[in-house]
Fold:
Amino acid sequence: MLDVMIVDDELAGRRTLRECCARESDLNVVGEYGDSRAALEAIRAKPPHLLFLDIQMDLLDGISLARSLDPAALPLIVFVTAYDQYALDAFDISAVDYLLKPFDDDRFRRTLERVRRRREAETAAQRQEALAAVLARIERGATTVDVRPRVLAECGSRMHMLDVAQIELAEADRNYVKLIVGGDTFQARSTLQQAEKTLQSQPMLRISRSCLVNMNHVREVSRTPRGDFILVLAGGATVTSSEGFRDMVRQHLERLKVRAC
Structure:
C-alpha cells in the first residue's frame, strides 16, 4: 500500500487527484493540502510514499517545496501542472513522473505504472539525483519559454484544448464559464475566479462582476450615453462594462493611450 499526499492550491485539482487515487486499490490518501507551507510541515513530519505536487502555487511553489524535502526520506514525486513546456523537459529526462492538466484516467494509470516500477528499482540516492536534474531543467525552461497554459472546454458534444492566448472573453454562466474564441463559444465547469487565475498569463480585464476580457483581442472601444464602455473583440463579440467597474476600465484604457512628448 502506498501512502499518498496531494498538494495543489486549486480545490478542483485536489478533487480530481483524490478521485483518481480512490479507484486504485493500492493507494491510500493520507493528506491533501492547498497550502504549500502546511504541506511541507506534514511531509517532514511523516513522509508519504508518493507525492502529487502542483508546480504553480501561491507562497511556496512546487519546485521550492521539492527542494526543501529531506533527501533521506524523499517520496516518489509526480509533478502536476497545466504548463506543457515543463512537461516536455520532464519527458526528456524520463526520470521523474509528470501529469499535464487536464489528464484522464488512462494517463493517470500510465503514470502510476511508472511510479510502481520506480519504487521497486530506485534507491534513495538515485531518486534524489533524478529530482535534482529535473528541477534544474524545469527552472531553466521556465526562464526561457513563454508560459502558455491550456484549458479543456466543451463545445457541443466534444472537448477541446484551448490555448489561453486565443481566449477573447470569459463570462460567468451559473456553474460554468463561457469562453469565447473567435466566433466559437466553449463551456468549462468553473467559477470566474478560477478562470481568472488560469488566464493570469494574459492581460485580462474585469469589466463587470461576471465578465473578463482579454485586452489583446479588443479591436474597438466606444461609450454608452451613461458612460459605460463598449468593447468590440476581434471575433465580433461585443460586451459592455458595468457601472461598478467603469472607473477601473477607464483607468486601464487611459494607460494604453499614446501621449505626445
User: Anything to note?
Assistant: Residues 150-256 form a domain with the OB fold (Dihydrolipoamide Acetyltransferase, E2P) fold (CATH 2.40.50.1020).
